[in-house]
Design a protein that fits this description.
The complex is a heterodimer of chains A (about 425) and B (about 280).
Chain A lengths: L1 H21 L2 E7 L2 H8 L1 H8 L2 E7 L1 H13 L7 E4 L3 H7 L20 H6 L1 E2 L2 E2 L2 E13 H6 L10 H11 L7 E4 L9 H11 L16 H17 L9 H9 L3 E7 L2 H5 L11 E5 L12 E7 L7 H11 L2 H11 L16 H4 L4 H9 L24 H16 L5 H18 L3
Parallel strand pairs in A: 1-2, 1-3, 7-8
Antiparallel strand pairs in A: 3-10, 4-5, 6-8, 6-9, 6-10
Helix pairs in contact in A: 17-18
Chain B lengths: L6 H28 L4 H4 L3 H6 L5 H9 L2 H32 L5 H10 L9 H11 L5 H25 L3 H9 L4 H12 L1 H17 L2 H5 L8 H6 L9 H21 L1 H10 L4
Helix pairs in contact in B: 1-14, 4-14, 5-8, 5-11, 8-11, 9-10, 11-15
The chains are: A alpha/beta (about 425), B mainly alpha (about 280).
Chain lengths: ~425, ~280
């Protein structure tokens, strides 16, 4: 009797184990951003449709970068899909670390990916990562404060106008700062803003011989203007403010203007989170009349590390997560304002989406940033707020630390630029440029 | 003769001790407060945070989004496993160094300690490659071994210090009574060193529980402990303080409670040594 029961149980267990063996599981490394977390919530639908299970590994952005770099360079095989950005994709693609995504199905319609995004996620014309969502940067401003100041924000303002408007809106007694900008050290934090801003002032990181350019007047103008404007109209301690700190300030009604990622538009216009949700306007990032604006371009994209044993399943997932159908799925359940933006042309042809207040300005911002032509003078690198070379992240982090020290008044702008020039020169020479 | 302590002096000492204690505890207190706020309220100025409404919303979100018990189970296995494994290696090592020292004992002890001075990231790639070869990536066994090795110098040093305070005559008496080496270690040395061993175990469990470099770098999904659970709530674009605080409270609560209940043992072991 006992033997029979034991045999039955053993058979049942082995059947379950056998059926489990057929279901393939893919592991995806990702960041904790709203759109990514939302996608995790819909994964069951993908599993139902394909029978492929999905394991998520969510990490902080810098930890993720370190973690996936270690894994991909050692061929550790821990991940079947990695969430990476525009900086890593061309470098890793060139190294042969990623599976080319040049054979996606016809229904997927790869030609629908916004050209700026496809360009930034390719190497030698081959797409290596599919954009899940893309962003540029733009001005978010308080329409009520602008009105009080008697000013009208143009769709495409200059830095001079922004500075004047910031000074006019500043009301220190009531805790209102005319402008909030990133100053925090880090190549993806304050480094991204100041690099994009320098593009509009005619500066560049390197000349065509890869020589650092921090000794030029254009960089001095950029930093002097930034510091002058922020000292006049920025919040206290702006040298340590990043995206989240400025988001908090803006949502609490303490910023007249904020120039930052276009994805922030959905946060500042969400009445559940923002006290100023009904009085936010949008404009293109400023320029100085030199032909380049201070907006960046970025995409969080899904890529497959070369050497994965589950390439087909991984491709299936990428096709699902970055498809037009996925956008429809999110729109149906959570509204058009919550769909992943900035990846597909068709989204911006959809009248439902274009009713969202920040949709047009987001598209215009994305379209006005070109990673292959981001500076006034010619450069040898690809990227708007970064140069897509492996050495950049380390160098730019150190440079942004020098800049932050200048913002905080610990050294002068000239000293910061001298140090930036010296350390970049050393690092580039050591790297063999 | 003990020095007389005036009531004023005692009050001052108490005040200083409480102040230091509160300063050290404040970050944990603040994490606890933020975990009961909405994301919008968690970013308000401190006084407004305290007066804003309290909610369990963040705990709900964390519970819904992550498998807490899987991470908790991994933390328990890795922290206790590495400590037990460490004791198995360290007790004989510390015994040998404390009771049968050689001329190079001090050098060996210093050499063991020097391995703690190497930045962990310096050996990340070699260890990662070894783990790939042995198939230990994202496994609890691999992480248990690594954390044991990392904490081994501390375990050996602590046990060595406690063992040194046990009079050698007691062990000699045991030998005279016919005890074998195994019996001497198990029935004479170990019971006498229990307070010291208990504090060693507690300290190492805490260190292993909180270890965040190797646990993040050598795991993906299967063996990820609570450190990975916390790390998943930091966000570069979006407010996350409340959810991160809720995840942190859930991650540190077990070890905090354990530390609370065993604080007497921990303090006694750390401050007095083996023989009272």
């Amino acid at each position: 009797m006992y033997l029979k029961s034991a045999l039955r149980a053993a058979t049942a267990v082995s059947m379950i184990a056998a059926s489990g063996a057929y279901a393939e599981t893919i592991t995806i490394a990702t960041v904790n951003n709203g759109d990514m977390i939302r996608m995790q919530g819909y994964t069951d639908q993908f599993t139902e449709a394909t029978g492929i299970d999905v394991e998520w590994v969510t990490l902080e952005e810098n930890v993720l970068r370190q973690r996936v770099t270690t894994d991909i360079t050692t061929k550790g095989g821990q991940f079947d899909i990695m969430t990476i950005g525009m900086y890593e994709t061309p470098i890793w693609g060139a190294n042969g670390w990623l599976v080319p995504l040049d054979d996606l199905s016809e229904e997927y319609d790869a030609d629908d990916i916004l050209p700026a995004m496809a360009g930034g996620l390719s190497h030698d014309g081959t797409l290596y990562a599919a954009p899940f969502y893309g962003e540029s940067s733009m001005i978010m401003y308080r329409t009520d404060l602008m009105e009080q100041a008697g000013l009208d924000m143009p769709d495409a303002p200059t830095w001079e106008f922004v500075r004047e408007a910031a000074a006019a809106m500043t009301d220190r007694e009531n805790g209102i700062n005319g402008i909030c900008l990133r100053g925090k050290a880090g190549w993806g934090e304050g480094g991204a803003l100041i690099t994009a801003m320098s593009n509009s002032f005619g500066a560049r990181w390197f000349d065509m011989d890869w020589k650092p350019q921090f000794h030029t007047q254009a960089w001095a103008d950029t930093l002097t203007f930034y510091k002058g404007m922020m000292d006049e109209s920025g919040p206290a301690g702006y040298a340590t403010n990043g995206f989240n700190e400025n988001l908090a300030l803006f949502q609490q009604g303490k910023c007249g203007m904020w120039i930052d990622a276009t994805v922030a538009a959905s946060f500042v216009t969400n009445p559940d989170e923002s006290t100023v949700a009904d009085s936010v306007g949008f404009a293109l990032a400023p320029d100085t009349g030199l032909g380049k604006r201070a907006n960046w371009l970025w995409a969080w994209a899904l890529a497959i590390p070369a050497g994965t044993q589950k390439e087909d399943s991984a491709k299936q997932f990428i096709e699902w997560a970055t498809s037009k159908d996925y956008i429809e799925l999110v729109a149906e359940n959570e509204g058009w304002a919550n769909v992943p933006p900035g990846a597909r042309t068709s989204l911006y042809e959809n009248p439902n989406y274009m009713d969202v207040p920040f949709a047009q300005m987001t598209l215009d911002s994305i379209l006005s940033a070109d990673p292959n032509d981001s500076t006034v003078e010619e450069t040898p690198y690809v990227g708007v707020q970064f140069a897509a070379i492996p050495e950049f992240a380390g160098i730019a982090t150190e440079v942004s630390q020098e800049f932050s020290a200048a913002y905080a008044g610990q050294q002068s702008v000239e000293e910061a630029l001298e140090k930036a020039q010296a350390l970049t020169t050393d690092a580039m020479e050591a790297a063999g440029y | 003769m003990a020095r007389a302590v005036t009531p004023q002096r005692k009050a001052l000492n108490t005040l200083i001790a409480w102040t230091i204690g509160l300063v050290i505890f404040f970050p944990i207190f603040w994490i606890f407060v933020l975990s009961f706020k909405t994301e919008g309220n968690a970013i308000l100025p401190p006084l407004e945070v305290l007066t804003s409404p309290w909610t369990l919303e963040s705990y709900g979100v964390v519970q819904e989004r992550s498998d807490y018990f899987k991470h908790f189970g991994n933390s328990v296995i890795i922290a206790f496993g590495s400590t037990i494994l460490g004791l198995i290696v360290a007790v004989p090592a510390a015994w040998a160094m404390a009771f049968v020292p050689s001329r190079s004992t001090k050098n060996i002890l210093m050499w063991m300690l020097s391995t703690k001075m190497l930045p962990a990231v310096g050996v990340l790639y070699p260890i990662y490659l070894v783990f790939i070869q042995l198939g230990l990536l994202d496994s609890r066994l691999g992480l248990t071994i690594v954390l044991m090795l990392i904490n081994l110098p501390i375990i050996v040093w602590m046990l060595y210090t406690y063992f040194r305070e046990i009079p050698g005559e007691i062990l000699e008496a045991a030998r005279m009574d016919g005890a074998t080496l195994r019996e001497e270690v198990l029935y004479v040395l170990t019971p006498m060193a229990i307070p010291g061993m208990a504090s060693t175990v507690l300290l190492n469990v805490i260190l292993a529980w909180n270890e965040a470099f190797w646990t993040l770098n050598l795991t993906a999904s299967k063996a990820a402990p609570l450190t990975a659970f916390i790390a998943s709530y930091s966000s570069p674009e979006g407010l996350f303080y409340a959810k991160l605080s809720a995840a942190s409270v859930m991650a540190i609560a077990p070890i905090l409670i354990m530390g609370w209940f065993s604080q007497k043992q921990l303090v006694r072991g750390l401050t007095f040594g083996a023989v009272k």
